[in-house]
TrEMBL record:
This is TetR/AcrR family transcriptional regulator. Keywords: DNA-binding. InterPro entries: Homeodomain-like_sf, HTH-type_Tx_Regulator, HTH_TetR, Tet_transcr_reg_TetR-rel_C_sf. The keyword DNA-binding applies. It holds the Pfam family TetR_N. The keyword DNA-binding applies. GO terms for molecular function: DNA binding. Gene3D superfamilies: Tetracycline Repressor, domain 2 (1.10.357.10). It comes from the Bacteria. Transmembrane segments: none annotated. It comes from Mobilitalea sibirica.
């Protein structure tokens, strides 16, 4: 079978897209640049023009996932610039929707053994995200909400609200993405009803 013809930049993007699928299917130990090259229908040496080893490709895959995740959250926030409560609820719904529709990202970032390696790398290289880290977007939205609500009306402190709201949407994401519970119909309508009815948002 003839090799596909890629522009230089296109091959890197294809290696990341295909690498994500293979990584999700095979796990870290069985994953290799050789297998990614074969799946992309390019020579075994082609990936080494962009990545020196499989760990470097995995980091690139993780950065792609984190970037897409953050873009999703930030878009939800930006739709309601003057309403911190609405920012928080819409971001929670967007969080769930993103991982239900992209379960391979959920498994990579939160449920795989590779998350420890990725966390170590990102802690050592904070410059890769700066203001574009999804969890920073999440925490900043919490802070805006807390600042906008009078302290006399707040039932939870900032740390408690972070833990509760993150735990809520993350738990729902895992249950739905992993099909742990049977759901019929529009799951997003159900999710919206749950998130918008939470009493911890005064």
């Amino acid at each position: 079978m003839p090799n596909k013809s890629y522009h230089h930049g296109d091959l890197k993007a294809e290696l990341i897209r295909t690498g994500l699928k293979l990584l999700d299917q095979e796990g870290y130990e069985a994953f290799s640049l050789r297998k990614v090259a074969k799946a992309c229908n390019v020579s075994q040496t082609a990936p080494y023009r962009h990545f020196k080893n499989k760990d470097e490709l995995i980091i690139a895959i993780a950065m792609e996932a984190m970037g897409a995740f953050n873009e999703c959250l930030q878009k939800a926030v930006d739709q309601h610039p003057d309403n911190p409560k609405k920012q928080l609820t819409e971001m929670g719904i967007a969080y769930i929707h993103f991982f239900v529709e992209n379960p391979e990202y959920l498994r990579l970032l939160f449920l795989s053994d590779m998350r420890y390696k990725m966390n170590e790398y990102f802690c050592a290289h904070p410059e890769y995200f700066q203001n574009d880290h999804p969890f920073q977007t999440f925490f900043q939205t919490i802070e805006r909400y807390k600042a906008a609500v009078p302290s006399s009306n707040q039932s939870l402190g900032k740390a408690e609200l972070m833990l509760f709201s993150w735990g809520l949407v993350h738990g729902i994401s895992i249950l739905i993405a992993n099909k742990e519970i049977p759901l019929e119909g529009d799951y997003l309508s159900m999710v919206r009803k749950i998130v918008e009815s939470e009493k911890f948002l005064d």
